[in-house]
Specification:
about 200 residues, 9 helices, globular
Length: about 200
């Protein structure tokens, strides 16, 4: 009898432990975001500052760029800053490719953070009207995500919302890969040119 009772207690404690772990992780990320956004670090994240820092790093610059894009954009740093900076540092075509990889990495970071933190909680409380829309995301996710990407680009709440929905990650990633390209190309070729002309 003791064995089954102990196993039952472990099963009950396991979800509770998981919820507390997610809550603690959420608090850490929130505290980090607030600290970053209220510090002087944000002011130093101008295109010119990023350009000089990446050039000083040499071959490690592209790696650090993608990593910074993946971690900082979900915290509220505009994707446009990274894209323009990449084009100014490496040129429009390499900058576009690096920005595309960085934007997909940032999108994946937001998606999986939301899915790990809130998917079960949201799904258990989703109103009936939204359940029908959510079910369509599971079957027609690519088309929906593509339209949202074209309209909203890297809008943070959208990425978190898709993370707690039923959309498949493969559909999300494929639609993001296609939907992010037009704005990244515009920033890489036009935006970087405007910034370069303005500061000449």
């Amino acid at each position: 009898m003791a064995g089954p009772l102990l196993r039952s207690a472990d099963v009950e404690r396991s979800p509770r432990r998981s919820r507390w772990l997610r809550f603690a992780a959420g608090l850490v990320v929130l505290a980090a975001a607030i600290a970053l956004l209220t510090s002087d670090a944000v002011a130093s994240l101008s295109a010119a500052a990023i350009r000089s820092q990446l050039l000083a790093l040499g071959a490690w610059g592209p790696v650090l760029f993608v990593l910074a894009f993946a971690l900082l954009q979900p915290l509220g740093i505009a994707a446009h800053v990274f894209i323009v900076a990449a084009s100014l540092v490496w040129g429009p075509v390499p900058g576009l490719l690096l920005s595309w990889v960085g934007a997909l990495a940032a999108s994946s970071t937001s998606f999986w953070f939301a899915r790990w933190m809130g998917h079960e909680w949201v799904q258990a409380r989703l109103p009936a009207k939204l359940q029908r829309w959510d079910a369509r995301l599971a079957t027609h996710g690519f088309r929906t995500v593509l339209v949202m990407r074209l309209l909203l680009f890297t809008f943070g709440p959208m990425q978190l919302m898709l993370g707690v929905s039923q959309v498949r990650f493969a559909s999300y990633l494929a639609a993001s890969a296609l939907g992010l390209l037009p704005m990244i190309a515009l920033d890489s070729f036009v935006g970087a040119g405007v910034v370069s002309w303005f500061f000449e």
